[in-house]
Amino acid sequence: MTFPTQDVADKLGIPRIVLFPCCAARLLFIHYVARKDPFTIETGTVPYEQISTSLVIDAITSKERREEVFCDGIPGLPRLLGKDLPHFKHTIDETHSLWEFQIESWKACNSRAYAIVMNTFKELEPSTCSLLSEVCDVPVYDVGFWIDLLHGESSTSIWKEDDRCMEWLDQQPASSVLYISFGSTTILSKPQFEALLHGVIASQHRFLWVLRPGIVAFDQNGSSLLKLIALIDGMQ
């Protein structure tokens, strides 16, 4: 959904159809955060507030607000707690920058794209899909779920795949390996990473942990990953 590709499409005069892989509710929530006209919501802690990026990030990053009602009564959306809001599981600064980037991307989509395609269907999110069709400035189509179309050698990963683990995995007993992965964008703090590492090793279970460069915040030289390798070697 990134807006730089819209600039290229505009320059070349190519109609751009945007694929939105998440649910319609998330897209509608982003629309409310990004809309130009003030939108007032009733929250659990403050009678009325204007929905904004800072308000969303505060609810996401505050442990105290996770279980509190963030909003109730937004058209097309259910009652939302702080823990229900879209997040990126990043550090605070990166969460803010990603939200700003997502909002700018949505503004470009909603004003300049030829159409938007969502990975959902009306029977699953009837009121949300209907409202999106009304409030968006470009056509919105629900064509999900398309995950069933991914088979064989297809992959949704943005990282180069490494299948060297398959030989080891085939040698393990059935249902004996714990699979750990935090996706393509999650960043863990060093204390979080080390706590997970020690917990997994202490469990004495076989595990397969997908590690990508940059998964640990501020781990420029890869010391945390080297520590993981050293601990695993010590178990063997």
For the biggest sheet, the summary is:
3 strands, parallel
Strand residue percentage: 5-15%
Helix content: 25-40%
Query: Structural class of the secondary structure composition?
Result: alpha/beta
Task: Explain this structure.
- With 236 residues, the chain is α/β, with parallel strands linked by helices.
- The protein has 2 domains: 16-147, Rossmann fold (3-Layer(aba) Sandwich), CATH 3.40.50; 165-230, no CATH class.
- Helix content is 39%, strand content 12%.
- The protein is built from 8 helices and 9 strands.
- It has a 3-stranded parallel β-sheet, covered by helices on one side. Strands 2-3 form a two-stranded antiparallel sheet.
- Strand 2 and strand 3 (49-50) form a beta hairpin.
- The protein is globular and about 55 Å long.
- The mean pLDDT is 77.
- Belongs to the UDP-glycosyltransferase family.
- One of its GO terms (molecular function) is quercetin 3-O-glucosyltransferase activity.
Condensed summary:
The chain is α/β, with parallel strands linked by helices. It is built from eight helices and nine strands. A three-stranded parallel β-sheet has the order 1-6-7, covered by helices on one side. Strands 2-3 form a two-stranded antiparallel sheet.
Topology, pairings included?
Elements: H1 4-12, E1 17-20, H2 24-34, E2 40-41, E3 49-50, H3 53-61, E4 69-71, E5 80-81, H4 92-112, E6 115-118, H5 126-135, E7 140-142, H6 165-170, E8 177-180, H7 190-203, E9 206-209, H8 223-235
Parallel strand pairs: 1-6, 6-7, 8-9
Antiparallel strand pairs: 2-3, 4-5
Helix pairs in contact: 2-4, 2-5, 3-4, 7-8
GO molecular function: quercetin 3-O-glucosyltransferase activity; quercetin 7-O-glucosyltransferase activity
Family: Belongs to the UDP-glycosyltransferase family.
